[in-house]
Automatic annotation (TrEMBL):
<keyword id="KW-0175">Coiled coil</keyword>
<feature type="coiled-coil region">
    <location>
        <begin position="21"/>
        <end position="55"/>
    </location>
</feature>
<dbReference type="GO" id="GO:0003677">
    <property type="term" value="F:DNA binding"/>
</dbReference>
<keyword id="KW-0539">Nucleus</keyword>
<feature type="domain" description="WRKY">
    <location>
        <begin position="207"/>
        <end position="274"/>
    </location>
</feature>
<feature type="compositionally biased region" description="Low complexity">
    <location>
        <begin position="332"/>
        <end position="359"/>
    </location>
</feature>
<keyword id="KW-0238">DNA-binding</keyword>
<protein>
    <recommendedName>
        <fullName>WRKY domain-containing protein</fullName>
    </recommendedName>
</protein>
<dbReference type="GO" id="GO:0005634">
    <property type="term" value="C:nucleus"/>
</dbReference>
<keyword id="KW-0804">Transcription</keyword>
<keyword id="KW-0805">Transcription regulation</keyword>
<feature type="region of interest" description="Disordered">
    <location>
        <begin position="323"/>
        <end position="366"/>
    </location>
</feature>
<dbReference type="InterPro" id="IPR044810">
    <property type="entry name" value="WRKY_plant"/>
</dbReference>
<dbReference type="InterPro" id="IPR003657">
    <property type="entry name" value="WRKY_dom"/>
</dbReference>
<dbReference type="Pfam" id="PF03106">
    <property type="entry name" value="WRKY"/>
</dbReference>
<dbReference type="InterPro" id="IPR036576">
    <property type="entry name" value="WRKY_dom_sf"/>
</dbReference>
Length: 388
DNA sequence: CGAGTTTGACCGGCGC
DNA sequence: GCGCCGGTCAAACTCG
């Protein structure tokens, strides 16, 4: 009897164990299926992200061309006796992968949401926001507010001229420098007017450390004490691409103003920029393009830098736009009356955290009366010696 | 050891 | 032509 009972017990236990194993297997299969599904979605999202990033990079490389075209056309209007260039609101929306005139319901919904958010922001509009530093960049034509004139462009990466100067057999240093200059000229060709030197964009920023990171990687190649300013000026070139012609100079503004640094940018990048760099690059390119096209009126530039004091000068044939982030220059009357209905995409780098070891200077520029919010995060990243 | 910085020398533009 | 001065080069140096 005892043997029979124990064998029955073993049988039941084995059945229970089998059932348990079976349920575990089923659960495992379900989990595997879920993981596969998540993997599949992940792949799709990766693909989508890479597509969007590629389009975004190519797009921002061509923004300044569009601005120039816009200004050329406005110049033509001036020539036809219109003479109302300053009243021409210019605002280009950048759309990724959208058709030209068809606005989907989703987009309309997004626009509604944006408009609602903005109206909330307008209600909450505080002095704090007004004093914030903004470097947002957005262009769209408001000639006809009823028409969505958002432009779609065929974006192609600018063909990077593969000069490969380093492979040339240069017999002397002079030859090397000549080759560099020729290369630089070619890169700038088409962006510079013949009589003028490279357009410069100066940004005066209030910070303790001059190493403002605009998203690019910079390599210091020199330091000089200028005659007019006893404090040393540092020279950097973009190290993101071997042939990138972009240079920048960083100099303390003066002995009495040690908290502010003047950063001067020169040239255009010949490579895609990271998110953090696009705002500054686009804004400075826009300013440079406007300046080169002759439309350097304060009204035109106020579209790009609505809250800040800026000036335009031409010294030593260097057309220069100076943007002063130390002097908020908010003037509601200067701002264009942007219709809410024409809102579209704006870019934000706020979701791109700076390296943990870097200080972040956040110029969270909110335009209190404008329907768009753009942010520009400048963080300290470039390695510099302490005395600068 | 490689990448980045420092710093004196050099080059070229510009004014006189 | 000469000198001044801003910009760049490149060897030496530093740092991780």
């Amino acid at each position: 009897m005892k043997n029979k009972k124990s064998s029955e017990g073993v049988y039941i236990v084995s059945i229970v164990f089998f059932c348990y194993l079976h349920s575990q297997e089923v659960e495992l299969d379900e989990t595997k299926a879920k993981v596969d599904k998540v993997k599949e979605e992940n792949e799709k999202l990766k693909l989508l992200l890479s597509t969007v990033l590629a389009e975004y990079n190519s797009l921002q490389m061509h923004v300044y061309n569009v601005i120039r075209q816009q200004n050329e056309s406005s110049m033509k209007l001036d020539g036809n006796g219109n003479g109302n260039n300053e009243d021409l609101d210019v605002d280009i929306s950048l759309r990724l992968g959208r058709s030209e005139h068809k606005i989907s319901k989703k987009e309309e919904e997004v626009r509604k949401i944006i408009a609602e958010n903005i109206s909330i922001e307008k209600k909450e509009g505080s002095e704090k926001k007004r004093s914030a530093h903004g470097l947002g960049f957005r262009i769209q034509s408001f000639e006809d507010p009823n028409t969505d004139q958002t432009m779609k462009f065929d974006y192609h990466f600018r063909e990077v001229k593969n000069k490969d100067v380093e492979n040339k057999c240069l017999s002397s240093r002079k030859d090397f420098k000549t080759a560099r200059n020729e290369e630089h000229h070619e890169v700038l060709e088409g962006h510079e007017q013949p009589g003028l030197k490279k357009t410069r964009v100066c940004v005066k920023a209030p910070c303790d450390d001059p190493s403002i990171n605009d998203g690019c990687q910079w390599r210091k190649y020199g330091q000089k004490t200028a005659k007019t300013n006893p404090l040393p000026r540092s020279y950097y070139r973009c190290s993101m691409s071997s042939n990138c012609p972009v240079r920048k100079q960083v100099q303390r503004c003066g002995e009495d103003d040690t908290s502010a640094y003047m950063t001067t940018y020169e040239g255009n990048h010949d490579h895609p920029l990271p998110m953090e760099a696009t705002h500054m690059a686009a804004g400075t390119s826009a300013a440079a393009s406007l300046l080169q096209s002759g439309s350097s009126s304060s009204a035109s530039l106020s579209h790009f830098f609505p809250f800040h004091h800026f000036s335009v000068s031409t010294t030593n044939s260097h057309p220069t736009v100076t943007l002063d982030l130390t002097q908020p220059n908010y003037d509601p009357n200067q701002l264009p009356n942007h219709p809410l209905s024409s809102s579209s995409l704006s870019f934000s780098s706020s979701d791109h955290p700076s390296p943990s070891n870097s200080h972040t200077l956040s110029f969270s520029g909110l335009r209190p009366q404008a329907p768009f919010t753009t942010y520009s995060h400048l963080s300290h990243q470039t390695r510099l010696s302490g005395q600068q």
